[in-house]
Design a protein that fits this description.
The protein has 14 helices and 40 strands. It is of the alpha/beta class. It has six domains: about 1-20 and about 695-715; about 20-125 and about 660-690, Rossmann fold (3-Layer(aba) Sandwich), CATH 3.40.50.410; about 125-215, Immunoglobulins (Immunoglobulin-like, Sandwich), CATH 2.60.40.10; about 215-305 and about 490-575, Class I glutamine amidotransferase (GATase) domain (Rossmann fold, 3-Layer(aba) Sandwich), CATH 3.40.50.880; about 315-485, von Willebrand factor, type A domain (Rossmann fold), CATH 3.40.50; about 580-655, Immunoglobulin-like (Sandwich). An eight-stranded mixed sheet has the order 15-14-16-17-31-30-29-26, with helices on both faces. Helix 4 (about 225-230) packs across helix 12, helix 8 (about 395-405) packs parallel to helix 9 (about 425-435) and helix 9 (about 425-435) packs parallel to helix 10. It is elongated and about 150 Å long.
């Protein structure tokens, strides 16, 4: 049995040595880089690339199989995408890949599990030209476009750049490496910049189309002067009379009064602000506090509040509640108007309401319109009912008596009726005349049946005004206008010098004096940018997820001759449009990196690309930045708290660039299990056949002989087995 044991040991030793049998040729795929930067060099070396049984793939931006290494293809694009080449090679089931290239790839190819043997070919001499713009340019901003020259040789060149800033020509001595020339202009809208460079190496052209990062859309209500200024600055302005959903704008400018909008429209504006929209109030004759905005749901978002003049107003409303007031809901409309009057009042104002039909009755005597006083007055007004005749005399006299006790300098009675008073006597006019130095009497006639002659005479005697309101539906508007007059919601006229505080909105701004200003002051949470003495001209702030601003002047009367008005309004609108809820992201390729800029309200944002993630670094208010390696290409995703928010396409790398292509090729080869070949002669070492290893069959045979030996030994020791 010793011969079996010896044979087993011999087989194991042979298996350890690792013999193999050649069965079939190795399947080689040769990738031929035919991109513009290296095609000439590859064509020169191609006749020497002859491998038995090899398949050939030509590639640039695309890839296709060709019959031989000497095939020339000019229809595969102007880039170098290795991913496409490897995908085509994988379809041919290679055992190994030979990559003939300059190593200047425009993408990051993933290994496919096959060794790659790189054969480096130097790129042809070249002077390349590209145009680079600043990230996120704003409308009206003076920007600089860089004409970037990358040269692989020392060459003299002529550069011409044309665009909105005119034509720029330069004679240059370009050194190997990278250089650039700046071209500056004001970006007022979509613009095109073209460049051309001519040298002994040939000519190159580049074209860059630019648009402002965000063309702001603005809805303007009730302020034609503002609309004209913004249109002149290139904003997408839509003048509207109402608010409809959805609000297709970034900013809504409000020169209308709150009473001009319905409750649904006010709610829409409130939602718009909370979702990241911005609002601008202007002090037109109907805007801001002329329009009662301080009494709406948006009052807390207003960055300004009215300046209350010292001293209050005493007012008693003498209100007809006779049976005729039930017609056409005159009483209901009068109550609605009275409520507006009460809501317009200030804490130092005293208001009372006495109603009359067959006899007078006080709803409430004159009281300060504090928050509690206003709530009680509103509740009492809403409980008013109508019925009976029209007896005004006693009610009017009681109103005069009550106002005598009110501690205000200004006092007024407003008598309102829709019919013929049955108790008019001459002493009524005498009482109005006697009180008129201290107490004014104004009268309101409602509908066609009102005693206009009596009411006009009473107003004349009382030193006040007579108002004819033929339609009951106009009563609420009348009371709002009367509140504006009574409670000093008036603009001041004159010459008001303007002071400027530093802010991006007021950059390079020096406004002349105003001719009209609404007395307002800035709320504590907002910021004053323009002021006149103690008064605010322009205040801004943030509310919800949007921004707000208030301009306390009427542009149809102020700054009409100042050339800086359009620019100031444009800077204000651009600031308003850049809210935290409207994030923006852009990637800019630089010589040694890809810079990704992010704007918006983010909490711990990060950038993910090619399976790698890195955090953004804050660089300013609502601004972040991340740096990627220069080879980064493809799609990137901005994440916030591990949730995807934005996607962007990274810019491709240029075909010619200052980069060590040999090192790129060596790194790729070694990562795949191959190597960088010294020259084309080394290709022959890759030819051969696929070997079939005999190691495991020899081990299996040795194991079988070992078992046979054990069996025979056991049989010899036990003959009966």
């Amino acid at each position: 049995m010793f011969w079996l044991r010896g044979l087993t040991i011999a087989l194991l030793l042979l298996a350890f040595w690792g013999p193999s049998l050649p069965l079939q040729p190795v399947q080689t795929v040769v990738l031929l880089d035919q991109s513009p930067s290296v095609r000439e060099a590859v064509w020169r070396v191609a006749p020497q690339i002859q491998l038995p049984g090899a398949a050939y793939v030509a590639f640039a931006s695309g890839a296709t199989q060709v019959a031989s290494a000497t095939a020339r293809r000019l229809d595969l694009g102007e880039g170098t995408r290795l991913t496409e080449a490897l995908k085509k090679a994988q379809e041919l089931r290679p055992d190994q890949i030979v990559l003939v290239s300059d190593g200047l790839f425009q993408d990051q190819a993933k290994p496919i599990g096959v060794p790659i043997y790189g054969l480096y070919q130097p790129p042809s001499p070249n002077l390349s030209l590209s145009l680079a713009a600043p990230a996120l340019p704003a409308k009206g901003q003076t920007i600089e476009v860089r004409a970037i020259l990358e040269s692989t040789a020392n060459v003299r060149a002529r550069l011409t750049v044309s665009g909105p800033g005119g034509s720029l020509e330069r004679e240059l001595q370009v050194q190997p490496g990278r250089s650039s020339v700046g071209y500056r202009f004001r970006l007022d809208g979509p613009s095109t910049v073209t460049a051309r460079v001519e040298s002994p190496l040939g000519s190159e052209q580049a074209r860059l189309e630019l648009s402002p990062a965000d063309t702001t859309r603005v809805w303007v209500l009730g302020d034609p002067a503002l609309a004209r200024y913004l249109q002149a600055q290139g904003f997408l302005v839509e003048e509207r009379r109402d608010i409809t959903l959805p609000i297709r704008a970034e900013v809504v400018a409000l020169g209308v009064g709150a009473r001009d909008l319905s409750a649904a429209e006010l709610d829409a504006l409130h939602s718009f602000l909370n979702q990241g929209g911005s609002l601008l109030w202007t002090a037109t004759p109907s805007g801001l506090f002329f329009g009662g905005w301080e009494r709406t749901s948006l009052a807390e978002s207003l960055p300004v509040e009215p300046v209350e003049e010292p001293g209050g107003v005493g007012m008693v409303l003498v209100l007809d509640v006779s049976g005729s007031m039930l017609e056409a809901d005159k009483l209901g409309l009068a109550v609605v108007g009275s409520l507006e009057l009460i809501r317009s009042a200030r804490p130092q104002d005293y208001i009372g309401v006495v109603v009359f039909s067959d006899r007078p009755r006080w709803l409430f005597r004159p009281r300060p319109m504090t928050e509690q006083g206003r709530k009680e007055a509103e509740s009492l007004l809403l409980s008013t009912s109508a019925g009976g005749g029209t007896m005004i005399r006693r009610a009017y006299l009681e109103a005069l008596d009550a106002l005598e006790q009110v501690p205000t300098d200004s006092k007024q009675v407003i008598a309102l009726t829709d019919g013929l008073a049955a108790d008019v006597t001459p002493d009524l006019f005498d009482a109005a005349r006697d009180a008129s130095p201290k107490i004014k009497t104004s009268t309101v006639a409602i509908g066609a049946d009102a005693d206009r002659q009596f009411l006009r005479e009473l107003a004349n005697a009382g030193g006040g005004s007579f108002w004819d309101v033929p339609s009951p539906q106009d009563l609420p508007r009348f009371f709002l206008e009367e509140a504006q007059r009574a409670f000093k919601r008036e603009a001041l006229e004159g010459s008001f010098p303007v002071s400027v505080r530093p802010h991006p909105i007021t950059r390079n701004t020096s406004p002349p004096a105003l001719t009209v200003i609404l007395p307002v002051k800035t709320k504590p949470w907002a910021q004053t940018l323009l002021s006149s003495g103690e008064g605010t001209v322009l205040a801004v702030g943030e509310s919800g997820r949007g921004r707000v601003a208030a301009l306390a002047t009427d542009l149809s009367r102020s700054w009409q001759g100042w050339p800086g008005t359009p620019a100031l309004m444009a800077q204000l609108l651009r600031w308003l449009s850049q809210t935290p809820a409207r994030p923006r992201v852009e990637a800019v390729r630089e010589p040694d990196s890809v810079r990704v800029l992010l704007e918006g309200q983010f909490e711990r944002p990060s950038l993910r690309t090619a399976g790698q993630e890195q955090p953004f670094a804050p660089t300013g208010p609502l601004r972040f930045e991340a740096q990627l390696p220069p080879e980064a290409v493809g799609q990137a995703v901005v994440f916030e708290n591990q949730e995807p928010r934005l996607r962007l396409q990274l810019p491709t790398q240029p075909e010619w660039r200052i980069e060590d292509g040999r090192a790129n090729l060596q790194r790729l080869s070694e990562m795949s299990g191959g190597r960088l070949l010294a020259d084309v002669a080394e290709l022959q070492s890759l030819a051969g056949r696929k070997a079939f290893s005999l190691q495991w069959p020899l081990i299996a045979l040795a194991l079988a002989l070992f078992l046979l030996e054990r069996y025979l030994e056991r049989r010899r020791g036990h003959p009966n087995v």
